[in-house]
Structure formats: structure tokens, C-alpha cells
């Protein structure tokens, strides 16, 4: 158990997943309603409850504030930071230069005189917005992605937007007219959805959805339904009017201001964090007030202006889903599926695999951010002893995790490695050996420079990038929908939050070399630029997956688990299509021997030579590399 969750949260920009990867984490978020399905689960023709399209999804995760500044005129001001951590307003402030050395303090930051680096990093804004995402949809599509998961875009003062001021409005600084949007929003009654206006930022979100769908790209929004921020309309009214506020039952209030008794206003914050007042729960999961509001906001974005589901988002990713009781999710899923039966619902759970089962019985979630996939891959491909596992152990862990889910679920889980809540894959490889990724709470701190001064912040070298490529070969061919965190495809590196949230590297922006350490001292220079070779590798694998139904929908059969030579191979089969994937995890070239089955096998990645002797085929795979064979 972490000694100081609050310290962790402050260092991590109050990230929404700074909790323990253990059963003890559930103590923070008690489940108060039954997880048992209440009735028959609607199934499709395949006997599954998941949307079929999600099996063929290739996900790209975007952290909006750091992706692309498409409209500098909407950039936030110092006033827009009020309500976000750190609570103290800066003495001086400006938009941070996009291409600046990450740890180098700018003159305005030096003028603030703060000795704590995390405060500077939390205050930074680079100007990323929705127009920037629209401008890069062709880039995303061109790489081979067909689905986007957006970190929160709703109104909030922080850079990460997990401290929502509302869920029915996009942050005005993500749209073209922040001042005009706030004037419109001020005239609403938040409790009456009929008064809700469509701001220019809201309209731009609809334009983003429209343009994405025109390119065959689906979008899901991030739903933060456990808490809001102190800037929220509900909390601000409650704070001002105390027990006379209609929002008095939205949050868990410990005491109100009372001059006679001397009591002061006190409330429950998520994980004890005062900037994130937590919603009150009842026997249905959430109190009626926040529940009704969330249901209305959900419908607004799924069926905008009543025009139909084709104009809305294609689903939701649910933040810290285990912190909201099962009863709420059951009712909310029914609401979502009534609006759009093909909507995709994915959860952030981050708990041992066996503990996720209650959430996947057909009446809550379709999939999850599959960190267990990442843990397995790290232990097989990256970890040194004693946390390294053999091919047989790797295969057993993968099989165990697949078997936990009802039919179809394993195919729609989001198979990721890095995210906004973990160090980037390149830096993970650089720092392999500092701990085990699976030990979530402990590793969370070990992978933060604020908690671990020994963490290496340098750029991955060629050998380490090769390991990243090996992982990508596996990620794009295994059961489940691959998800890539923005910038991993161009070689971005960084420690855990906040260093995993650097501004995206684009080829039309000039970047300073990274020469500054977290303590301000100097280190050998690392050039920051697009790694086009790595980018092409991602694109090749994405397009290969998109072109082969067997990699999206096919069955899974293990072919090789060679512990002595560190080799692993499997086959994916769909209808008449057969695809074999060979992974050489050793430091030397290795020959694979497989059955021929009377077929003409062709290698797809590097056109490696396949020879035949009798009823066997033979293929030599380079060290730390893979091969993909397709039966012609």
C-alpha cells in the first residue's frame, strides 16, 4: 500500500488512476450494490453482447491539451487556471513554447520562484485544442487508426480535465470563442437541460465527430462520473449556499459553515483530494442529482440536438470505473445502449484480472483499458530477472486473462502499453529493472522522477527502440484491439505523469534538444524529432492488421513456447484465412520449425525466406524481432 496517496496525487497532476493495483484499493471506493446481472442479457447473432465494430478497432489515444495547437486565438490565460492544482495562482504566466526543452524552466517560471518542479509542470499550458485534432485527422487515418479515445475535453481548469466544471460543455479554450462561450453558459440553469446552449466549442466537438466519421474514424469520450472539480457549477453553488443549495445531496458533506457551532464547510474529496469533490452514492450507485445530470449529459453527446446517434460519439471510456458502484453502471449501460445499441463502453479498472469479472457480465462494460496485457508483455519482453517470465509462462498468463471474459470481450479490450497514467513505452524500456509494472501502486512512484531521482530521462537508443518494435508486432497481431498513446509512434519518451504528457512531436515544429535534468542541471543532449522509421513500423503493422480479418476476428492457437530459446508463436484463424505470428525474444537469430499443412506460407513484414522440408516449414527470425506468415 502506498504510504502517501496525496503526495502521489499531487505529483501526478491528480491523475485519475493513481491508485493501488491490489484489492486494498477497493477500500477507497466501496461497492455498495449487487454486481449480479438483473435479467437476461441481450446478445447478438454471434452470442455476444459487445459491438462487432470494436473488434476491428485500432485505437489512438489523444491527450487534447498536448496534441496540436490548431487555433492560437483560443489559448488559455492565467485566469483560466484558477481552480486547478496547484491552488496558488502564479505571479507570472504565459503559454509555454511548444518546442522547448521539457525540464528547462522558462523565464516566467523562474520569476515565480517555486522550488517544486511539479508545480511548474502542472501550470503549463501549450494550447492544444479541438481544431488541432481536426487538422490532424488525415495524419491519424493515414497511419492506419480507425478509432480515437479522447482524454476529457469538458470544461475544466486543469491541463488534464479530470476536474470537470461541467460535463455538458466542452472547455471553451478548446473552441474558437472562449469569452463568448462563457457568457452563453452563464445564462443556463444547469439543472434544466432544456436551457443548455450549444457553445462554439460544443459545435466544434460535433464538427470533429463529423469529420472523423467521414474518414471512417470513430470517437469515444472520457466520462469522469465519480467526481467533479471545485469549479463545477454544482460545487460552487453548494459552497456559496451551503445546506440551502439544491446540490446539497450531490456530494458527501461532512459539515456546513455554522458560526454558532464553529463548524466549517467540509466534504469528501476523491482519495481525500480537496480539489476533486466526490459524488455522493446511494443504494443505486450514485445519488439522484448527479445521476440524472450524467444521464442527460450522456444523451447530449450521443444524440446531439436529437438528430440521431450517427451524429454523436460512438461510446465512452469510464474513468476510475471501480469507484462507482455496479448499480449505477447497470442503469447507465441500459441508457447508453437505448440511444445507440452499437456504442462501445470501456472501463479503466487496473486491478488483478480475476477482479474484473463482475464488470463484464453483459450489463455493465464491453471492454477495458487492458493494462494486464501490458503487464504480461513487459514481463516477457522487457523485464530482467527476477520479474522476467518464460514463453510458457507468458502463454499461460495470456490464456488465463482471455478465459476470464465472456465470449467476445477479449476481442474488444483496448490492448495498450503506455497511457497518460504510466511512463511511455520507450522510457519504460530504458528503465527496465526499476520494478515490475504489474505492481501498479509501487511502480507508479518508481516511474516518476519526482519520486525516483534515479529514473533515467534520456532518449531510448536503437536497441531499446527495437524492443518497442517487437512489442508492436505482438500488439497488432494478438487478440484484442490495439491502442497507441499519441506520440509513441514517433518515438516520444517520458517518465510517468506528468512527463508522459509532453507536447506532441511534429515534423513542422522545431524542438530544442533536451539537455536539462529534472533538478535543472545539464546532461548529454538528446535531439527531439520524429522517428520516421518507428512511425513507418507502426503504420505497416496497423495496415497489416486492418487488411487481415484473422488478426481482428480470428481464433487463437499457441504454436511454439520454447523456453530454452525464448521463442513464442501463435496462429490466428478466421474462416479460410490463417495467419501465424512468430516472436524471437532472444538475443540471437533463431530458426522456427512449423507444420506445412499443404499451404504456401509467405512472410509479410520483411519478406523473410520460408523453406520447406517434407511436412515442415522453416524460417529464421532475427534477434528481438518477429515475423508474420500468411497462408496464400
Which percent range fits the helix content? 25-40%
Mean pLDDT: 94
State the total count of DSSP E strands. Answer: 20
Major beta sheet, strand line-up: 1-2-3-6-7-8-9-10
Low-confidence region ranges: 1-27
| Biggest pleated sheet | 8 strands, parallel, barrel
Shape: globular
Query: What structural category characterises the helix and strand content?
Result: alpha/beta
Second CATH tier, the architecture of the domain at 554-631: Sandwich
What is the CATH superfamily of the domain at 554-631? Answer: Golgi alpha-mannosidase II
Proportion of residues in extended strands: 15-25%
Radius of gyration: 24 Å
Number of helices: 18
User: CATH topology of the domain at 554-631, what is it called?
Assistant: Immunoglobulin-like
Q: Which CATH first-tier class of the domain at 554-631 would you pick?
A: Mainly Beta
Distance between the termini: 53 Å
Amino acid at each position: 500500500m502506498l504510504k502517501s496517496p496525496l503526495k502521489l496525487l499531487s505529483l501526478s497532476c491528480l491523475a485519475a488512476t493513481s491508485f493501488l493495483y491490489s484489492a486494498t484499493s477497493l477500500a477507497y471506493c466501496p461497492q455498495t450494490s449487487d454486481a449480479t446481472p438483473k435479467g437476461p442479457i441481450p446478445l447478438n447473432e454471434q452470442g455476444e453482447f459487445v459491438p462487432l465494430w470494436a473488434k476491428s478497432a485500432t485505437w489512438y489515444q489523444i491527450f487534447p491539451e498536448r496534441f496540436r495547437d490548431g487555433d492560437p486565438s483560443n489559448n488559455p490565460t492565467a485566469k483560466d487556471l484558477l481552480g486547478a492544482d496547484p491552488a496558488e495562482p502564479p505571479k507570472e504566466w504565459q503559454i509555454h513554447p511548444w518546442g522547448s526543452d521539457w525540464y528547462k524552466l522558462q523565464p516566467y517560471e523562474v520569476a515565480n520562484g517555486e522550488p517544486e518542479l511539479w508545480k511548474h509542470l502542472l501550470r503549463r499550458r501549450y494550447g492544444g485544442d479541438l481544431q488541432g485534432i481536426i487538422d490532424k485527422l488525415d495524419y491519424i487515418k493515414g497511419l492506419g487508426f480507425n478509432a480515437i479515445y479522447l482524454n476529457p475535453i469538458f470544461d475544466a481548469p486543469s491541463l488534464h480535465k479530470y476536474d470537470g466544471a461541467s460535463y455538458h460543455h466542452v472547455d471553451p479554450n478548446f473552441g474558437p470563442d472562449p469569452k463568448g462561450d462563457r457568457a452563453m453558459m452563464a445564462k443556463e440553469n444547469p439543472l434544466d437541460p432544456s436551457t443548455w446552449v450549444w457553445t462554439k466549442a460544443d459545435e466544434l466537438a460535433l464538427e470533429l465527430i463529423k469529420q472523423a466519421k467521414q474518414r471512417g474514424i470513430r470517437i469515444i469520450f472520457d466520462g469522469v462520473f465519480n467526481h467533479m472539480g471545485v469549479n463545477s457549477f454544482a460545487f460552487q453553488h453548494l459552497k456559496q449556499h451551503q445546506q440551502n443549495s439544491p446540490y446539497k445531496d450531490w456530494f458527501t458533506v461532512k459539515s456546513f459553515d455554522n458560526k454558532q457551532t464553529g463548524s466549517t464547510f467540509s466534504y469528501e474529496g476523491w482519495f481525500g483530494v480537496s480539489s476533486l469533490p466526490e459524488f455522493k452514492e446511494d443504494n443505486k450507485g450514485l445519488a439522484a442529482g448527479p445521476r440524472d445530470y450524467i444521464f442527460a449529459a450522456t444523451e447530449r453527446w450521443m444524440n446531439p440536438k436529437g438528430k440521431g446517434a450517427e451524429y454523436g460519439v460512438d461510446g465512452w471510456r469510464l474513468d476510475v470505473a471501480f469507484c462507482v458502484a455496479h448499480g449505477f453502471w447497470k442503469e447507465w449501460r441500459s441508457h447508453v445502449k437505448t440511444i445507440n445499441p452499437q456504442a462501445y463502453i470501456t472501463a479503466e479498472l487496473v486491478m488483478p484480472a480475476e477482479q474484473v469479472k463482475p464488470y463484464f457480465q453483459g450489463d455493465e462494460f464491453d471492454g477495458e483499458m487492458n493494462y494486464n496485457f501490458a503487464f504480461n508483455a513487459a514481463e516477457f519482453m522487457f523485464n530482467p530477472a527476477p520479474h522476467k517470465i518464460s514463453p510458457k509462462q507468458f502463454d499461460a498468463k495470456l490464456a488465463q486473462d482471455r478465459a476470464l471474459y465472456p465470449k467476445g470481450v477479449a476481442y474488444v479490450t483496448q490492448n495498450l502499453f503506455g497511457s497518460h497514467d504510466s511512463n511511455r513505452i520507450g522510457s519504460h524500456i530504458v528503465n527496465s529493472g526499476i520494478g515490475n509494472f504489474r505492481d501498479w501502486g509501487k511502480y507508479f512512484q518508481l516511474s516518476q522522477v519526482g519520486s525516483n531521482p534515479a529514473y533515467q530521462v534520456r532518449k531510448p537508443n536503437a536497441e531499446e527502440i527495437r524492443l518497442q518494435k517487437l512489442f508492436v508486432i505482438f500488439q497488432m497481431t494478438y487478440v484484442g484491439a490495439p491502442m497507441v498513446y499519441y506520440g509513441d509512434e514517433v518515438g516520444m519518451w517520458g517518465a510517468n505523469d506528468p512527463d508522459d504528457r509532453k507536447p506532441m512531436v511534429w515534423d513542422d515544429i522545431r524542438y530544442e534538444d533536451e539537455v536539462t535534468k529534472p533538478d535543472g542541471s545539464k546532461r548529454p543532449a538528446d535531439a527531439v524529432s520524429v522517428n520516421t522509421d518507428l512511425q513507418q513500423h507502426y503504420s505497416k503493422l496497423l495496415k497489416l492488421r486492418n487488411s487481415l480479418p484473422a488478426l481482428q476476428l480470428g481464433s487463437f492457437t499457441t504454436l511454439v513456447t520454447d523456453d530454452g530459446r525464448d521463442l513464442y508463436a501463435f496462429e490466428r484463424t478466421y474462416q479460410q484465412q490463417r495467419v501465424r505470428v512468430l516472436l524471437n525474444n532472444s538475443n540471437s537469430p533463431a530458426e522456427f520449425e512449423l507444420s506445412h499443412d499443404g499451404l504456401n506460407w509467405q512472410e509479410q513484414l520483411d519478406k523473410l525466406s520460408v523453406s520447406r522440408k517434407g511436412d515442415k516449414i522453416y524460417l529464421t527470425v532475427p534477434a528481438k524481432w518477429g515475423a508474420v506468415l500468411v497462408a496464400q
